[in-house]
């Protein structure tokens, strides 16, 4: 049972990890914490559902169409948000921008529930099947495996991206010090837009893959806190940290529901987080993000 | 200048709102020769927006429109003053005070939510205004606050009791597990189930809780399975009930699941998909496609006429039932309508049939309307003709069952 | 800013007088009385939170936890031990302050984001603790709050006695806060906010002032919670969520951070607006759309909040009086002031 819970926790944890990843991407380039990360995923998921109402995916081709449309929408949406909310606040104190994103999250919920879609809860299918497969006493579904695989894939791709590509390095430079980056000829505005678009795409993919587990409604954004917790746990500012932290958080939660007495199980993961923050504020994999 | 302008607008808006709120109305408490005004406070936005809008708005407003078009009750048209409290207790208290003091409503109808209405209760009782059919399933409204408070629908204790009795009698499954939300609703289901099991000399074998909004319930499912549970009572709403069902299907656990009102909806069935098959649920109102019940047919007609763009939902059906039963009370109260005569009017209803639920009898001692439910099972439906996707639905398996001991 | 001038004191005195008379005006009813009670309670929370977040610069996204502790402690002391309200409120506020102090201890090492996360987690843990401590708190069911008596007078949401208690406490605690802000402690708070390194260099004991800030803020919030419990007569854990914590922060941002006036204006604005929303068609999602948009717009265009805008007007009036603003054309005065 222990192993089953760990495996199960990895799948949920991967969703947290993708949310955490969205946070960290934005933070790495723009120094902002986007508390509307979960709501970005929600809007994207609602859009995915609408698209699935048009396209009715049932084969590889149609699923790819849905995926591509989702990615495109998410990218545009992310860039739009950056342009109207973040760009004007580029020089404001960090706390202000954070609170603006909190306002954004509420705004998005209101718009999605009241104006564009509605308050009901929906389920959509995922390209991965949910048929359980038994491997040596453990039960896994392709859906679980798919989510974990995609998440791990992201670590690899993005870590390499930030380390070795020009744009990636430019993003890191921008986060270190905007002024210097500008002086070095980096188009900071484009970096900002690109980062938000990228982060939104990550959330969009998370929503798309995980919708069968998550259920689509205006409450989806409540996952933000757990993603945030995962990111801090793993080491704020680090991409591998976000993912490992997110996955750990999911596993911790799962193990807690099984092995801990009822009075502590629902908050055990948060208590662990608090503990980590006390002892090692930089998180498990932490490296402090140094300001230049 | 723009900054000043914006700030100016905000301040003026504040002043206007504040002044507007201070309007005093005429002294008559909600009744004139041509109108009866009732008040409702519910979560129309926020976590229970779906229920609030369907149950507290669409249902009653549909029925009121219908009655008004047919001349009203004793020549009086019905009006509902509806305020949003977003499921926040302090706002519910504010809304009820406003309804009583500023809007001067005649009675409070279908206010929603246990924590919210509980917080407003002292305000309501102090004002000696009738609280009719609050939209909460807690086990107290029909019993504890006579004569001002009435409840029309079966509550969670009644429903759990019916299910416990049924399962013990028909299936003989004695090892019960309970999976419940860690708030007042879940606790109600827990306590109702345990109380009824005790009456049969049994105890629950295992109980597990979850927090509203949880995604992963695999831990709780695993623990219940390991405890050897034969039947699981779901004290959930559909958001967490469906993941439970899917998880149990995933691990291949063939346990009998049972549920009560909040999972008695098509939404729940849709979210479960194939994992729902075999699930049993109590219904204290028929399903919205049950065309054998005249009240349901009337309800469908009303919804299609006045709210054609809205889903015809079970939640709205409940609101309709409450409104209809309230109107029956108004009718019985006679032309001389006061709060006292309303209470007498309701208490005079014997075997009143609203065309939907089981028959209702009120009296001076009895303020609880329906206690009976019937039981339905989730089965496969015909596939969607357009997309050929599989569909599922609830099918009735029993007639009305009254819970023993209530 | 001319906070302590005679002019301000007279205005404050007049306001107090007006509020004392208000319940006796003809158009008053128990609904409006209750709204005013809520405003006074909200002012307590706002001022308390502003001391911590606005003046001392410590971000707390878990203040609903202190609010809940004040409410539950006071209710439990009355319910289980028969403690009269006057004592239960003070005790509850003090217990909350003590816990605030304890929360402040780890805050010494955490800043900004990490502190925010820690307070968030703390809020969650308290929310859960309320459910678990069922023998005391009645868990998820929620508990009824006993009616408080002050001698022969009942303290309920529709009584004058309760109104005056709330008014008095709001005034006294606000006055206290104004004095704290102008004292050495207040200056230490602000030094903390601007730069912790600089503050330390100047000999300011970070640990001491951070924990004091938390304890003080918790005291205010706990007191507010105790009053709140009496006003709503029934409290349950799911009334004290993270969303409430966020609302508290939004109030001081819209009102104006680092400003006592801002705390007051923010509290009034939000409660009044909430009441205005109650009747709007819910399909529009109006409250959430407004609330979110307002927060964003205020941060973008009025970053000092309403208080900042008020101060700007006072500043301009003062300048004009001094003859420093020769013309009244918008562009000229904008250029001169900004």
Helix content bin of chain B: 40-55%
Q: Quick one: biggest sheet of chain B? A: 7 strands, mixed
The major sheet of chain C is characterized as:
2 strands, antiparallel
Run of helices and strands of chain C: HHHHHHEEEHHHHEHHHHH
User: What structural category arises from helix and sheet content of chain C?
Assistant: mainly alpha
Helix content of chain C: over 70%
Q: Overall mean pLDDT score of chain C?
A: 87
Strand content of chain B: 5-15%
CATH top level assignment of chain C: Mainly Alpha
Label the overall shape of chain B.
globular
Q: Largest chain interface and its two residue counts?
A: B-C, 57 and 56 residues
Amino-to-carboxy terminus distance of chain B: 68 Å
CATH class of the largest domain in chain B: Alpha Beta
Mean pLDDT figure of chain B: 89
Oligomer: heterotrimer
CATH architectural arrangement of the largest domain in chain B: 3-Layer(aba) Sandwich
- The domain tally of chain B reads 2
The structural domain count of chain C equals 1
Question: Could you describe the 3D structure shown?
Answer:
The complex is a heterotrimer of chains A (292), B (406) and C (338). Chain A has 292 residues and is mostly helical. Chain A has twelve helices and two strands, in the order H-H-H-H-E-E-H-H-H-H-H-H-H-H. Chain A has helices spanning 2-30, 37-55, 60-86, 94-116, 142-164, 166-176, 178-183, 188-214, 224-234, 239-259, 262-265, 268-279; strands at 133-135, 138-140. In chain A, helix 1 runs antiparallel to helix 8, helix 2 (37-55) packs antiparallel against helix 3 (60-86) and helix 3 (60-86) crosses helix 8. The relative contact order of chain A is 0.21. With 406 residues, chain B is of the alpha/beta class. Chain B folds into two domains: 28-154 and 292-347, Response regulator (Rossmann fold); 156-283 and 373-396, Response regulator (Rossmann fold, 3-Layer(aba) Sandwich). Chain B contains twelve helices and twelve strands. Chain B has helices at residues 2-21, 49-69, 89-102, 114-126, 156-170, 184-199, 218-226, 238-250, 266-272, 294-306, 314-333, 339-347; strands spanning 35-42, 77-84, 107-109, 131-132, 149-150, 176-181, 206-210, 231-235, 256-259, 280-283, 374-380, 392-396. Chain C is mostly helical and 338 residues long. In chain C, a hairpin with a 2-residue loop joins strand 2 (148-150) and strand 3. The radius of gyration of chain C is 21 Å and the shape is globular. Chains in contact: A-B, A-C, B-C.
